Amino acid sequence: MYKKLIESSLKKAAKVDKVELEIPANPAYGDFSTNIGLKKGNPEEIKKNLTKDKSLSQIVSKIEIKEGFINFWLSKEALIDNLEKILKQKDNYGKDEIGKGKCVVIDYSSPNVAKRFSIGHLRSTVIGQAVYNLYTFLGFDTVGDNHLGDWGTQFGIILSAIEEKSFNPDSITLNELEELYVDYSKRAKENLALKEKAKDWFKRLEDKDKKARQIWEIVNKISLAEYQKIYDLLDIKIDYTYGESFYEDKMAKIISLAKAKKLAKKSRGALIIDLGKDLPPAMLIKSDGTTTYLTRDLAAIDFRLKKWNPSLIIYEVGSEQKLHFRQVFKAAELLGWAKKTSFVHIAHGLVLIGGKKMSTRKGTTIKLEDILEKAMDKAAELFEKAKVAKDIDSEEKKEIIKKVGIGAIKYFDLMHHPESDINFDWNSIFNLKGNSGPYLQYTYARTQSIINKSQIPNKKSLDLGAWKMQFNKEELSLLRILSQYQDVLVNAAKNYSPNILCSYLFNLAQKYNTFYSKHRILDISDKSSVMSQFRLAITVATGTVLKNGLLLLGIKAPEKM
RNA sequence: GCCCCGUUAGUUCAACGGAUAGAACAAAUCCCUUCUAAGGAUUAGAUGGGGGUUCGAUUCCCUCACGGGGCACCA
Fold first, then answer.
1. Could you tell me the pTM of the whole model?
2. Which nt has its C1' nearest the CA of A434?
3. Shortest-distance nucleotide from A64 CA to C1'
4. pLDDT score for A459
5. A516 CA → B39 C1’, Å
6. Among A49, A74, A99, which residue terminates a domain?
7. What ipTM did this prediction achieve?
8. Which residues of A200-214 are buried (b: 16+ CB within 10 A; e: fewer)?
9. Residue where a domain stops, chosen among A237, A265, A287
10. Quick check: is A346 in a domain?
11. How many domains does chain A contain in total?
C-alpha cells in the first residue's frame, strides 16, 4: 500500500501519468525504486519535487539517486505502522479492493470423465485454486467452474468399448474404464472400423439414444465420486461443475448466432467459422453432424457472460491446448463477446517424468492416489523424527501428516512458473527441505511455538516501544519484507503466477529463520521486556503472513510439526 | 513443411527491458547445556552459438543448433 502512495507522489513530481515503481531485487537499492529518471525528466529535479511532498516524507525516510534510478527507503515509522497493521488486521492483512465490482470466472481442474484424475489435472486444479484464492482476496467477485470433460468423441470410445466387451456398466470401476479407453484407442488407431463405431456412439449420445444415455450417466457418476474423493483430500472446492454436457442444448443457439452474423459457413461437409489465415478454422459441426469441444466452449462463454457478466475469464488448461484457445478467443471476438470481457489462457506446462511426457494411452501415467499416499508416508517418516512428535496424539498426528504431505505436493507444483514444464521426480518432491511447502510450514510452526511460550496474552496489544532503538539488520530486513506482502499478491494475481507468492514466502521464511538463529526472541529473564515484545510482534506478524500466504496457495499450516 | 513454447551453476528452478543474474538440491567446512537442527553460517559454481535494437538485453528482433507442444472433423 505504500507503493500506491509513492507512485502518486512520483507522478506529480515527474509530471507524468504513469510510473513504474518496483521492489528492487537487491535491498541495498531501497524498498522501492523507479527508472523514471532514466526514461524522461531529470532525476535531480524529480527528487527535489519529491522532497517538497509532505505526505511522502511521513513514510519515506530517504530518497537516493543512483545511476539514474531513484530509490526510496521506507521510514521506521512506516515500517512500524505496517507491523501494527498486521497485528491488528491479522487474516485480513494484505486484502485489497482492486477487484471491487469486477467479476472473474476461472475455468479449472476440468478432468476428463472415465479417466483417472491425472497429475496434469492436478496442476490445473492446484494452480486454478490458487489463482481463484488470490483474486478473491483482492476483492474480485470470483467464480470457479469445473468444466468437466463429459462429452465428445472420447465418450464414444468409452461407450463403444463397454458394448464391445459387454461390460456391465453398473459394476465397472474407474480403473477398468480407463483401461478400456486406453485399449480401445490404441486399437482404433489402426482400425478405422473401431474409430467409426466410436464416432457413431457419440452420435447416438447426442441423438439422445436411451442406452447411450444410461451408460453415460453411470460413467459420470462413478467418475465424479472418484474425483470428489481427491478434491476432499486436496481440500479443493470449486463453485460450479457444469461440465461440457451442460451445454448440449445451448450449442444450437451459438450455431444460429454464428449463422446470423454470417460467420458460419459450410466447408467439406462441416460447419466452420473462418478465423483468418493465421488460424485453422473453428469447427462448429463436424461432417458427421456432431458438435465439438470448441462449440461447447463457445456456448460456455455465452452462458458465463449472461450469468456472471465477468470482465475476465481465465482458463487454467494445459499448454497443449494453446491453439485451441487462440481459436476460441478469436471466435469469441468475432461473435462480439470480447468487448467488455477479456480472455486469458494459463497454459500450464507438462508434467514430465524422467524428462518424458506421461501418456494415458501409453499407460505411463502415475496414479495421483499413489503420489499423494507416498507424499504422506514421507511426511509421516519425517515427522517421527521431529522433536514435538512424542507430545502429540495420533489424531492430531494424522492431521499434521496430511497437511504436510499434501502441502509438499501442492507447493512443488505452485513454486514453478505455471507455463513451464515441471519435472516430476520423487526425489525433488520428497525433498522436504529447502524451498518447499514443509519448510514454510515448519517456519510457521516455529513462530507459533514461540508465541505459545511467550506467556504474553495474545489479546493484549504488544508494546512496540522498542522500535525507537536501532533495528538490527535482521529485524529491519523482516520489517521491510513484511511491508511488501500486498504488492506481491497483486503482482502474483496480475501475472497469474502463484509462484511469485511462493518465492516471497520462501524469502520471508528464510529471513525469519536467520533472525531466529541469530537473536534471542524471548528474553530468558524477562519475557515481557520491551525487546521481547518487539521481537515477538515480528514473530506474530511473520506467522500471520506465512499462514495467510500459504492459505492463499491452498496449503494449510499446522501449529506444530 | 508451417505455427507456438523452451534452452540460465553438476541437477531442479527464479528474475514486470534495469543496478553485483537470485534460490534450492548435490559438494566442501562449521554451529545443538539456549525459544522445534524439518534449522542457521561460510565456500565453490551458470544466461546454447552468432548477429542486431537500446544509455542498459536472461528478457525485445533476426539467424543457427538442440528439445518439447501443436497444426479443421480428439478433448
1. 0.95
2. B24
3. B19
4. 47
5. 9
6. A74
7. 0.95
8. bbbbbbbeeeeebee
9. A237
10. no
11. 3
